[in-house]
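pasting for the record
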Amino acid sequence: MRVGRSPLACVLRMITFIPPFPVEGGMTVRCAGAWIEKGESNALLRRASELETEVVLMDADKVCGVGHLESAVFHARRAFERGANASNTLGMEVILYASGERQISKAKKKMGLHQGTERVAVVVLEPREADIDKVLKELNIHRDDSLLDCSREKGEAFGIDANEMKAAGEEMLVDLVMEKVAFVEILKR
């Protein structure tokens, strides 16, 4: 007797064959992981606001790979292009999508920097040709891109529950996170 695949397994299998989302003009999203001292998040946010470069700072403990950030930027830019944005700024829209949440307050709580934050995800939005290493130097933070790597702990912190992980398999964790990013567009309606 042949056992069929569950609908979820089929959907997840299809997701793996979707080509990477087109980032406008073929450009790549400039992002990095970085360390900060505990309790320095407010000072870092202040320094970032003084830059001429538009930067988004998020809690790297909930970022599951560079693709997670690229997807959030892609969806946020598209929301602005279509007039479907929920926030007033592109940076906040990126945080909204990166969080997989519908509400800005929940997105900020989930992905935003807090006093205990030590690991930060940095995304450069404008100018698009900005040098991320120069931005990190201006922010006075130390680059460590391994902070962006996905892990089971990050998936759980992001909100992927044990049942989802068990059904899809831990190797599909990045795809599960990116699925939640993409669903924000539907949740906002």
